[in-house]
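Checklist before submission:
- one chain only
- standard amino acids only
- sequence pasted in full

Submission:
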Amino acid sequence: NHEILDSGAKAAAGRKRILILEVARPTLLYLLAFETALVIDENGSQMTSHNCVPSPAKKAKTTTSWRSWKGELEANNGKRFGLQDLLPGFTLRLEHRQGGTLATHRGEERILLYRSDKKGAIAKIIYSSEIQEQPSLQSSVAELQKNIAQAKIHVLDVKSQYRGRDLGGLLFSEAITHLKSKYCNNDDNEDDDFNTNEPLKSDYEQKQLYDVNCSLEAEEDVTRHGKLIAFYLRLGCHVVSKRVQYISDNDFAYRKVPMQVTLKAATTAARKRKRSSLMSKASFLPVQLVGDAGKITVTPSGGSEAGMKFDWLINQADDGIQFSTTHGHFLIASPSGNVTILDQVNDSYSDVDGWATFVPLHISDEIDHDDSPFQQSSSRSLWVLRSCHGTFLTADSVSKCLSCTKLPSFWQANGSNLSLACTSDTPPRRHHYLQCWKLQTHEYVQSMRSTFLNFSLGKATLFEALGWIHTFPAYPFHAWSCEDTSMVSSPSLRTLSFLMAEAARDEGLPDWVQLVALFHELGEAVKKLDPNNTGKMADSIYDWTISTRSRVVGCAIPNCATFSEFRHLNTDSYTDTGVYEANCALDNVLLLWSGPEYMYHLLRHNQTALPLEALAMVRYYLLGDWHEHHEYTSITNEYDEDMLPWVSDFDRLRRKTRLECLDCVDLSDEQCAYLWDRHYSRIAAKYDCDRLFAW
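Returned file contents:
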């Protein structure tokens, strides 16, 4: 309905996303960016303006944590985080040497790869080259008419513990780059990138250029049959038409396959961007960029090839870090958000260094930030990688490709395996679990049980409570729930509950499972019944009502516990069984105080007719250490083992529904009432869950 937009609204539409809802005359124009509704009459004139900010309960729930870490991003804007902050430990460097007492070939050179914290090279390539002064008898007519230089790769070796990162490809590419600078390119400085703005030199000033025939012998044994040949083919070599030599030494046999790569001298008509050498870089590291499905793919700048998986290097830059392949191609981010590989022959990007630089910004796990020196608290702490355009590097979970978005995505840097993993984890989620580890002790749980298990908050039906949780988001920890203003139409916790009940119904599960799926999240309703205590605490410090992974308190904590890196914050210290008797059963232990734990006790206190399996589902589906990892065997018994399949299947159903509900539309009051009246009210009556409950 663009005809109804006046000039002011058109200008706003050019800057922000708008949604036009034609409900009746006059028409409602909802500007998401400004949270304002403009009521426009049928002639197109603006008449009134109304505030359309969502309800404070829902808005506050999604912005409290966001402001803390978004503010930290702004505070860190002037800080200089580099390669050693991101991946502390060692770095790598290259060293080029010519001749020397160790040289055994004429014109010998070597490139050595060193660790910053150890002596001795971890990888090396040895090669030699010289100008062919007199052509051989086997030279072709074409070769006789050209200036030819001969080169040979004698040794390419990477120590076994450093293989698998294409460091051999890095050394080979560095050697080829040096040979090109020496013989094929007319450059004053062999380590400088080609400057397209530099004027061409006269023929008198230009040095003599040569084509280079670089040969090598790929030596393979039976354990690497075909792998080494494929490695050199990928680097641009080809097998020459000579006889393959087979060598046997007692029980050891291998073959030598002659291979060659030809380097062409540059011409005035084909001045191209050179591969950037790492020889001048102070430090770098090999790294794997991974997402949920493993290595991330990137499309080369030409666009002709499908997304490819590369071995990456992180280079320290002046203003941040840069990613390049082991063959010297830079990862660049364009203003449009596309992330691609800049190949050697592409000069279409004017500011390569700027577009290839990403600034790492650390998101602290601590709630209160001060001006103390930076310390990376754990290998699972979060980072964002900001481009020069103000966008953030991310790995798309659907396409498995890199891109840049305005909304930050978070990365976890692991120095032990040298990887950067794009994670669905967010700062609000980490802050929540940090507070959980800090607060939820055996004493804390006993105190909360004493406070809430007298059920004196008031009386309400479960269906009333479903209406209360409509103001709470289904995904309180998602980054987009903190930034995107379209969150006002994202699914609520009530919608998630109804959709999970419908999923149980579609799978033909028992009716009491459907009822549990509908009611299991109602513990969050306590924030409505107890706003002065639970509600205020949830908004400021810690929201215990949110459904997050649970554990047993009063006994030893399993190593696989969620966010186990925060366990040092917990003051409890117990033996394997702790305060409990051996094999006492989970019914007799204390779990973390949470919304589902409260609901379990509420259903028991109000004496519903739900079967024991239903109560076990409500209480234990968050206890993944037990039903997924089979922990707590010293305190569980046969009864718990009988309950485990029910609990595990309920957790599976919940995870499945949460994934499917990410992009769903929030259910209206009328839709929820329809589902309740047509189906779930009868099941609630059957299991005595349709009356007033004491909360």
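Reviewer check: Confidence is low (pLDDT under 50) at residues 1-67, 189-198, 368-374, 482-488.
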